[in-house]
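Hi R.,

As promised on Friday, here is the backbone we talked about, encoded as structure tokens. Could you run it through your design pipeline when you get a chance and send me back a sequence?
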């Protein structure tokens, strides 16, 4: 006689943060960061060593969610990449970052009185 197995569906350990990013579980680790490590060849166990605030089950669940919703998550990652690029361009336009290092070094050598 076989005993029936009951399967329970669980939601992925993902949540939106206040800035519109996706975080893993209750941590501050972003899905972007976890997937960057995954895409560079890190195993879930190696990712767990990098981000010790994450449980291995959360890492596996996040990767599984990504693999089953790849197009949606890739679109999200591309939007995040574009938004970050736009933000960098705005910063460069709004603040004169050209030769910033040299200006700071000069200021350090010749302090204003």
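Update: got your reply. Pasting your designed sequence below so it's all in one thread:
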């Amino acid at each position: 006689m076989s005993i029936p197995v009951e399967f329970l569906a669980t939601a992925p350990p993902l949540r939106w943060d206040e800035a519109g990013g996706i975080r893993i579980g209750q941590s501050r680790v972003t899905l972007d960061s976890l997937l960057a490590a995954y895409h560079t060849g890190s195993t879930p166990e190696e990712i767990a060593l990098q981000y010790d605030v994450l449980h291995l089950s959360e890492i596996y669940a996040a990767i599984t969610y990504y693999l089953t919703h790849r197009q949606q998550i890739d679109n999200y990652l591309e939007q995040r990449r574009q938004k970050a690029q736009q933000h960098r361009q705005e910063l460069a336009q709004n603040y004169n970052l050209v030769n910033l290092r040299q200006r700071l070094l000069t200021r350090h050598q010749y302090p204003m009185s």
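One thing I noticed while checking it: The longest strand covers residues 14-16.

Thanks again,
M.
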